[in-house]
Amino acid sequence: MIGPMVGEGREAEVYAWGDDAVVKLYRPGYLGHHGESVALAALDGHGLAPRLIDIVERDARPGLVLERLAGSDMLVLLPRQPWRVLALARALAKAHRAVHEVQAPADLPDLRLVLAARIDDAPLPTPLRAFALRVLDGLPTGDRLCHGDFHPGNVLVAADRVGVIDWANAACGVPEADHARTLLLLRWADPLPGTPLISRALMAAGRSVFAHQYARTYGGSRNRLSHVDSWLTVHAAARLTEGIEAERTTLIGLIERARHNAAH
């Protein structure tokens, strides 16, 4: 039943599965299928994510059969339709707020514990690692569903629907923590390897506008976001485990400035 490949990422390959579904096959060594399946089950009926149809195994690789969503992701749409930058940023924020209204299943990992483990493994000078862990220790836990990697490339836009994909990093936590990870990516993430120069130029020109509109829409009048800067520090430290050399100087700088400000 497996058809042609329709996409791939670091952790998995996605293939057509009949006319209305896809199968996401995880690469050997990656175990995100469990968290993704649990998150998608919790999201069933909310209209925010593809429906989980089945759990399969092919060539000793775990796979998830998912509803095939229509549309293009926002990273594709933004350089093609830059005049939609504000509308797409608002749509991203509204989808993220809707995700955070869902209570996380009990068997998802605690986001604070996930971040602590990543900071322990991060290539950081000892004083900066200790500082990041102290900051994390002072932040709250929560019971909301957190995506863990919510950014425009993981949000599909069709005429009448926005769908959130790639739930392998789903966790249980406070919405503000997940929101801060998105802000970090919108403001400072390096474009994926192979991104055309024209796309890089458009991203550089529009990312601050997009990030500002996303943050403004997400915050609204109902949310109190008093710990965003602290969560940004924690996520900057954890992000270093992803080994993106082009971001290293920026991330280290963010942590150093936060440490300096905390001392004065």
Note down, in words, how this protein is organized.
- This protein folds into two domains: 2-67, Phosphorylase Kinase, domain 1 (2-Layer Sandwich); 72-262, Aminoglycoside phosphotransferase (APH), C-terminal lobe (Aminoglycoside 3'-phosphotransferase, Chain: A, domain 2), CATH 3.90.1200.10.
- It has nine helices and ten strands.
- The protein has helices at 33-43, 74-80, 85-100, 111-121, 126-137, 175-188, 197-219, 228-239, 245-262; strands at residues 2-8, 12-17, 21-26, 52-58, 61-67, 72-73, 144-146, 155-157, 162-164, 171-173.
- Strands 1-2-3-5-4 form a five-stranded antiparallel β-sheet, with helices on one face. A three-stranded antiparallel β-sheet has the order 6-8-9. Strands 7-10 form a two-stranded antiparallel sheet.
- Helix 4 (111-121) packs antiparallel against helix 5 (126-137) and helix 8 runs antiparallel to helix 9 (245-262).
- The mean pLDDT is 92.
- For the record, the CATH architecture of the largest domain stands as Alpha-Beta Complex
Low-confidence stretches: none
Main pleated-sheet profile: 5 strands, antiparallel
* Global outline: globular
CATH C-level class of the largest domain: Alpha Beta
Helix content: 40-55%
- Report mean pLDDT, rounded to a whole number: 92
Cα distance, first to last residue?
62 Å
Tally of helical runs: 9
Question: Strand sequence of the main sheet, in spatial order?
Answer: 1-2-3-5-4
Task: Label the structural class.
Answer: alpha+beta
How many runs of DSSP E, i.e. beta strands? Answer: 10
